[in-house]
């Protein structure tokens, strides 16, 4: 996909996501900054922040766990190299919050490669978000879990490991698909 394609899809994705009751009522949202050809998230992050939502963004730790920082706008993002320079992520500048900060979120926006008809998410294999989901479960908190994808990344079935957990919804530029609990319980 070209940069223009990613940008066009990002606007549609942000509009769909912002209409979710889970995000409309959220005070704190844990999200991420998209990289490469992932569905763009900056428009959504800025719109959430403009609503007064506290947006937490991840900072990758050496053990692949995630610390968090508060998003203060696009100028507050700094490039951070990981994996010996093989990967550069945009991470929040400023104070680092501990990994457990994610338990304060009303909604968690998750990256992924795909989601299947059961709501199972296929990640990139680093385990960072598996740790996030396990941390939420251990804390006995249940924020809405939402994956942002392109339409063609919603598939019939993805591989599943015993530790995998389903998400509540997937948002694509053309719509929202829900799994499990209704929005009123999110």
From TrEMBL:
Domain of life: Bacteria
Catalytic activity line of the entry: (6S)-5-formyl-5,6,7,8-tetrahydrofolate + ATP = (6R)-5,10-methenyltetrahydrofolate + ADP + phosphate
EC top class named in words: ligase
Keywords on record: ATP-binding, Magnesium, Metal-binding, Nucleotide-binding
Pfam families with a match to the protein in the record: 5-FTHF_cyc-lig
Required cofactor(s): Mg(2+)
Stored InterPro entries: FTHF_cligase, FTHF_cligase-like_sf, NagB/RpiA_transferase-like
Entry annotated with the keyword Nucleotide-binding: yes
ATP-binding among keywords: yes
EC number: 6.3.3.2
Protein family according to the UniProt entry: Belongs to the 5-formyltetrahydrofolate cyclo-ligase family.
Protein name: 5-formyltetrahydrofolate cyclo-ligase
Record organism: Streptomyces griseorubens
